[in-house]
Design brief:
- By secondary structure, the protein is of the alpha+beta class.
- It has 9 helices and 5 strands, in the order H-H-H-H-H-E-E-H-H-E-E-E-H-H.
- The chain has a 5-stranded antiparallel β-sheet with strand order 1-2-3-4-5, with helices on both faces.
- Strand 3 and strand 4 form a beta hairpin.
- Helix 1 packs across helix 2, helix 2 packs antiparallel against helix 3 and helix 4 packs across helix 5.
- The longest helix has 18 residues.
- It is globular, with a radius of gyration of 19 Å.
- The two termini are about 30 Å apart.
Length: about 260
């Protein structure tokens, strides 16, 4: 285990308090380190929440949010929430855009509120009025073997179109901020008409896929997921990868 940051030490104290009640069941320290790493990964994906940071935003201690502390407290209540990492990200999207106080909610109530917000966001999107932009050949990262789909590198102007066509919140402000700050790379699986089918978010430092969502934030359809895995094989220059290894690289759980 790497050295813990001050923030991670605080999260550790949530799971391993100095004074313990004999009535409670405790986790092994190694288990807690695994949980801390998963929570920190969400925090790194969220990145800096603020305007024009003057500090080095790559330093974990400089992140201006406490959402991973809230996540830790909710996971402590119910360890099965570790299987709901995507739900946590949807909740944080809602919190950042609405600037609500997350700490007055528990996981279930926050999940209900984010769902309402995302549904209202989708209703406001006028898909029919969207003009399909021209494809810039230089931003095609990979053409799939069927020649009908390609992986497209998105810029800031693309995010609004991507968000409306995919009915997700990638077109919202904090996603644009992360792209502008060089924290994140966004890619899109598109067909020959330039219509998107999957939106991917890649951490610019680790080069790891931290989100991959279908339309209305659904899990990727297998047909489209196979095309992303084809791209991963090309990108990593590996001849063979087992499904679990591929899923781990893409940071996707319970897909296969």
């Amino acid at each position: 285990m790497r050295n813990l940051t001050k923030r991670e030490e605080h999260i550790k104290s949530i799971f391993l308090p100095k004074q313990r009640s004999l009535k409670k069941i405790y986790l092994e320290e190694e288990q807690v380190f695994g949980i801390i790493e998963e929570i920190s990964e969400i925090g790194r994906a969220i990145g800096f929440v603020g305007i024009n940071p003057s500090v080095n935003i790559e330093k974990e201690e400089k992140r201006k949010h406490k959402y991973d502390v809230w996540i830790a407290k909710e996971i402590k209540k119910d360890l099965t929430l570790l299987n709901n990492i995507t739900s946590f990200r949807l909740i944080i999207d809602w919190v950042i855009e609405t600037k609500c106080n997350l700490f007055v909610y528990d996981f279930n109530s926050a999940f209900i509120e984010q769902k309402k917000w995302h549904e209202e966001l989708i209703e406001k999107l006028n898909i029919e009025s969207i003009k399909i932009p021209e494809i810039e050949q230089g931003r095609i990262l990979y053409r799939c073997s069927d020649k009908k789909f390609f992986i497209y590198l998105l810029n800031e102007k693309d995010l609004e179109y991507e968000g409306k066509r995919m009915k997700n919140c990638v077109g919202q402000g904090h996603y644009k901020t992360k792209l502008k700050n060089g924290k994140t790379i966004y890619v899109s699986l598109r067909d020959e008409t330039n219509d998107p089918h999957l939106t991917g978010e890649i951490d610019a430092v680790s080069k790891k896929m931290i989100q991959l969502r279908g339309k209305t934030n659904q899990n990727p359809q297998r047909e489209y997921m196979e095309k992303i895995l084809e791209f991963v094989l090309f990108y990593t220059n590996y001849d063979k990868l087992e499904n679990k290894q591929q899923a781990k690289y893409l940071n996707i759980k319970n897909l296969f």
